[in-house]
Amino acid sequence: MEYLERVLEKIKQLVDKLIESLLGPEAEPEPEPIPIPVDDRRLR
Q1: pLDDT, tens digit, 9 for 90 and up, residues 1-44
Q2: Could you give the CA distance from residue 24 to residue 26 in angstroms, rounded to a whole number?
Q3: How far is CA 36 from CA 33, 39, in A?
């Protein structure tokens, strides 16, 4: 059983490397936009 777990882990690592080489690195979540204060008192 231990042998099968090691083989599956190696296969998973190889698949991860293959996907990363084909599609690029894993997508990172976009950072939240920073709110920019707007002085709209002039418009009133």
Answers
A1: 899 999 999 999 999 898 888 877 656 667 888 888 887 776 55
A2: 7
A3: 9, 10
Q: Rounded to two decimals, what is the model's pTM?
A: 0.49
Collapsed DSSP state (helix, strand, coil) of residue 22: helix
Q: What is each CA distance from 34 to 17, 19, 24, 27, 40, in whole angstroms?
A: 34, 32, 27, 21, 18
No. of helices (H) and no. of strands (E), the chain: 1, 0
Q: Residue type at 20?
A: E
Question: What does the block give as tokens for 34?
Answer: 């920073």
H-run or E-run covering 43: none
